[in-house]
Amino acid sequence: MRILHTSDWHLGRSFHRVNLLDAQAAFFDHLVATVRERDVEAVLVAGDVYDRAVPPLAAVELFDRALHQLAAAGVPTVMISGNHDSARRLGVGAGLIDRAGIHLRTDPAGCATPVVLHDAHGDVAFYGLPYLEPALVRDEFKVARAGHEAVLGAAMERVRADLAARPGNTRSVVLAHAFVAGGEPSDSERDITIGGVASVPAGVFDGVDYVALGHLHGSQTITPRVRYSGSPLAYSFSEADHRKTMWLIDLGPGGEIGAERLDCPVPRKVARVRGRLEELLEDASLERHEPAWIEATLTDPVRPAEPMARLCARFPHTISLVFDPERAPEDPLASYAQRLKGRDDQQIAEDFVAHVRGGSGPDERERTVLSGAFDDVRVDDTTREVAR
To answer: Which terms in the Gene Ontology molecular function aspect does this entry carry (predicted)?
Structure first.
């Protein structure tokens, strides 16, 4: 069976205030054309269909258009909700939409009820695991401790139990929205850390033929059977070096995997430039970046006059300006920035405790309290998104 794996559409998202709806519409045209040209038999969308729980009307209209395009192409589509989506809103009308061949899987309780498709070699069972927020689904999966590995592991136990009851030649595909160990994140994914741990081991998915992942925006291979498609467009400058693609997966009669990366259309390249303003304006090697969306980091010790206007004269699509002045190593501002670089919220909070105590950091009990406070804030944010 030939499968097209995509994810992280983030409909309604802008890029530094640049509207991306036209670029997202062009991606859908490309996706449907690929389905027809490459004889795709199933499309998988591994979550984050929308960028937020209550998307703007234009994003909903674009999603509606995409559903009609896929249905008209006659290709079954399996789609799960991600951590940016409101699972309840995305899942409205799922039973009716099923009849058009668009299978929305947004309810954690239904993770072991697959969409079963057929080819010349038998059945392929597609299990949709929507994003599982540990604190919200721990009761459903009856886990003692709310963590990503625990709830995903419990969901996969249900999947394996259902698969074991099916004919022996049934092949299996899982869609999941998670941070799997070994994946490389970017700046544009929302933090899903719980208890100081965001990632789950790839081994949690053992026992199935292919795992179509969403959440991380870079296309990557965790194992030959576990892959991220990545987002079809760049949503942050940290993705400047990404090659935006979809995975074309050929699932053989015995579960063999063939994989090919198919490029997505690029509306405009994304680039980062760094240096003193005069250097950026005069450097001939930067000519290739002139048509790109630009993030410019200026290292001038003193902020130059009218930097954005002067940059736009050469790079007309400069949309982000960062100041990172060169400082002497002994400069206290430089050392403070260096201390914070690469540190997460928990580490910064622990450093603050140590600072106000004259060097005595938090003990184990206090670290647990801090960790719980950060987890509660993240869960509250998620709950508010769901309530909307």
So the answer is: 3'-5' exonuclease activity; endonuclease activity
Identify whether residues 92 and 219 lie together within a single domain. yes
H or E element, residue 307: helix 307-314
Handedness of CA 215, 255, 243, 38 (dihedral sign): negative
Identify whether residues 213 and 355 lie together within a single domain: no
> What is the per-residue pLDDT across 43-95, written as a single tens digit (0 to 9) for each?
999 999 999 999 999 999 999 999 999 999 999 999 999 999 999 999 998 88
Q: Quickly tell me which residue has 């680039």 as its tokens.
A: 271
Structure tokens at 346: 């928990």
Strand duo 210-214 + 171-177: pairing: parallel
**Can you say how many angstroms the Cα of residue 254 is from the centroid of all Cα atoms in its chain?**
30
- Counted domains in the chain: 3
| Phi (first) and psi of residue 347, to 5 degrees | -65, -40
Burial of 279: CB neighbours in 10 Å, binned 0-12, 13-18, 19+: middle
In one-letter notation, the amino acid at residue 111 is C
Asked whether residue 293 falls in the same domain as residue 371, the answer is: no
Are 16 and 121 members of one domain?
Answer: yes
Instruction: Give the Å distances, CA to CA, from 337 to 3, 186, 273, 331, 349.
Output: 46, 20, 20, 10, 15
Shortest CA distance to 46 belongs to which of 224, 175, 179? 175
Domain around 281 = 270-323
* 283 and 178 inside one domain: no
